[in-house]
């Protein structure tokens, strides 16, 4: 199979997926059925629908590449006979295959995460948790009781705690960051 044929085959599957996703967009419900079908009849207009609704993160992340692949498909296939007019580069064919995979089989959070998330247990030392938050510039961290998420320790919640348990004798000069 030529690279052009391979590209066009993958593009056809990609186009079907984009059209399928665009037909499901809730914003189309306000249109009459014939208007809905016009808006999602073609690849480019389906991309417009998906971009406008902004709900399909994976498609929106690759919208410019998808548009370029659409233009390449048009250039390859819109000629007088059935043969493609050129062969795309190997990297382009590999790229559209990878894009198709990332759209049809997106990675899970666990596949994307590079580090184990920082979590605390309700029995952990509060000052220790604050130290970890300060060291890592975290504004909030989840708090668990066993396997159950019971809350979020945030900068704001710690400020409320500090105000509620305030010692009236502490002067601003005693705070380490102001001294």
What does this entry look like structurally?
This protein is mainly α. The protein folds into two domains: 3-110, no CATH class; 120-174, CBS domain Like (Alpha-Beta Complex), CATH 3.90.1280. The chain is 55% helix and 8% strand. It has nine helices and three strands; from the N terminus they run αααααααβαββα. It has helices spanning 3-23, 33-39, 43-53, 57-61, 63-77, 90-104, 109-112, 126-136, 155-164; strands at residues 120-121, 140-145, 148-154. It has a three-stranded mixed beta sheet with strand order 1-2-3. A hairpin with a 2-residue loop joins strand 2 (140-145) and strand 3 (148-154). The longest helix has 21 residues, at 3-23. The protein starts with a helix and ends in a 15-residue tail after the last helix. The mean pLDDT is 83.
Question: What does this entry show, briefly?
Answer:
With 179 residues, the protein is mostly helical. The chain has helices at 3-23, 33-39, 43-53, 57-61, 63-77, 90-104, 109-112, 126-136, 155-164, and strands at 120-121, 140-145, 148-154.
